[in-house]
Predict the 3D structure of the following.
Amino acid sequence: MPRAWVRGMHVELVGSSDSPFTPGDAIYGVTNAQFTGGNAELAIAKEGMIALKPRGLDYIAAASIPVIAVTARQMLFDHAGLSKGKRVLVHGAAGNVGAYAVSMAHAAGMYVLATARPSEAAMAYASGADEVIDLSGVPQPRHLGSIDAAIDTIGGPTQRELFVYLQKGATLVSAVSPPDEGIAAQHQVRGVFFLVSVSTGELSSLGGLFDTNRLTVRIGEVLPLKAARHAHEMLDGLRPKAPGKIVLSVS
């Protein structure tokens, strides 16, 4: 796949004469399938994993989008196969991927149930949730066995609690940990684990949603590039952080 040299979210140099990009283009996206090498003033990116930056967003906002928004979109539509009128349970609705999943499902006309702590309920409703469930309490009987798909953004032991909400033939999709095949079979549902694949097409489609205000950005922390280690310690839970995406600013 041809590559482009990117400086400060602008194309510096392209790797082939037939590249869809030209030097000076404002872009957003990822560097490669491993999402490495991006914490730099000059980065090399695969052309098939970048797209023109949404016109209505600044660079900080655009930089916060690619991986988490594409993950949410692929979970809902590619792997769960959801559409208007379906009922979806988003597990971890206050997180970065979860918040996008709630917003996208709401925009697509689905009925959205979201799991969140009581302190995060307002945030989930603001993202577009119709109902919020606190899984630390007793499951709400009226929802048991009535959901078309569960979107798991947390994984771990709490993933098992989602199965009772799913009707037969439903799908549980996780980008965090593989669903237990035995439990899935017991409940007659399909379990899916996947790794996100970011592409120019995905990013271009998302850009249209942001430019038409059907999706909004949520940024948590903006740190200078030299604080990259600090940012990774925040991701690892070693330092406190605000809700939302962490962005490194290259000045």
The first strand starts at residue 3 and ends at 7.
